[in-house]
């Protein structure tokens, strides 16, 4: 019976991966746990124990965008990266780093530009925005550094033209250690301005510099 069930389980796993990718791209859901639950419910498999790994879903998102997005997706991603570089230049005093979907290429119509910035206090960033007349919203983000080490960080959100920008504020020492990625649990990739410029110029072997 186990041998007969294995191919069926594998087919369900592949369907879950594809449905997760579709939900992330078309509906803008970025939380992997939420997207897995949605996919399982829609495929009438809410009790399955054969959930895909986050990395498998991320790879499927890239495939989905290449297949269905084509030149349109590539152009949109480039515009988001250009907006990211402009924002990084604007916030240069806070040593910004690009993270997330705009960096790894999975960004879609729902994506914002997500930056990590570093300051003596979060209020320094708020004052910077206010002095320049930029309306913003505040929030918090829960990030993991070790297995059970979670911390909350302040977030500022604003619009740069038609592009939403999301700033997570760390202390200056936060450059030394990146939080864990929700994709694979490894330290999150962070790109400085030079790395983003390389992306925009299509360098084939982009190396993300270490924090610092």
Q: Tell me the structural class.
A: alpha+beta
Secondary-structure arrangement, i.e. CATH architecture of the largest domain: 2-Layer Sandwich
Describe the global form: globular
- Extract low-pLDDT stretches: 204-208
Main sheet: which strands, in order across? Answer: 1-2-5-4-3
Which CATH class of the largest domain is shown? Alpha Beta
Percentage of residues in DSSP E strands: 15-25%
- Order of helical and strand elements: HHHEHEHEEEH
Measured on Cα atoms, how large is the radius of gyration? 19 Å
CATH topology of the largest domain: Beta Polymerase, domain 2
* N-to-C CA distance: 54 Å
- Give me the oligomer status: single chain
**Helix content range:** 40-55%
Number of domains: 2
Average pLDDT works out at 88
The count of helical stretches stands at: 6
What about the largest sheet? 5 strands, mixed
The number of distinct β-strands equals 5
| CATH homology-level superfamily of the largest domain | Beta Polymerase, domain 2
Record keyword descriptors for this entry.
five-stranded mixed beta sheet, 2 domains, 5 strands, alpha+beta, 212 residues
Could you please describe the fold and organization of this structure?
This protein has 212 residues and is an alpha+beta fold. The chain has 2 domains: 2-52; 70-200, 2-Layer Sandwich (Beta Polymerase, domain 2). It is built from 6 helices and 5 strands; from the N terminus they run αααβαβαβββα. A 5-stranded mixed beta sheet has the order 1-2-5-4-3. A hairpin with a 2-residue loop joins strand 3 and strand 4 (149-160).
């Amino acid at each position: 019976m186990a041998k007969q069930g294995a191919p069926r389980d594998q087919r369900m796993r592949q369907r879950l991966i594809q449905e997760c990718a579709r939900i992330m791209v078309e509906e803008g859901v970025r939380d992997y746990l939420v997207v897995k639950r949605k996919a399982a419910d829609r495929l009438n498999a809410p009790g399955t124990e054969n959930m895909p790994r986050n990395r498998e879903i991320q790879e499927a998102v890239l495939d989905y965008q290449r297949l269905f997005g084509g030149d349109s997706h590539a152009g949109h991603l480039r515009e988001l990266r250009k907006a990211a570089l402009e924002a990084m230049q604007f916030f240069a005093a806070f040593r910004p780093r690009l993270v997330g979907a705009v960096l790894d290429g999975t960004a879609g119509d729902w994506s914002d530009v997500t930056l990590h910035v570093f300051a003596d206090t979060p209020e320094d960033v708020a004052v910077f925005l206010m002095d320049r007349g930029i309306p913003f919203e505040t929030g918090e983000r829960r990030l993991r550094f070790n297995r059970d080490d979670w911390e909350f960080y302040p977030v500022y959100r604003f619009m740069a033209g038609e592009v939403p920008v999301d700033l997570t504020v760390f202390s200056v020492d936060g450059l030394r250690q990146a939080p864990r990625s929700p994709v694979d649990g490894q330290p999150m990739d962070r790109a400085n301005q030079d790395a983003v410029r390389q992306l925009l110029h299509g360098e084939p072997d982009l190396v993300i510099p270490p924090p610092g």
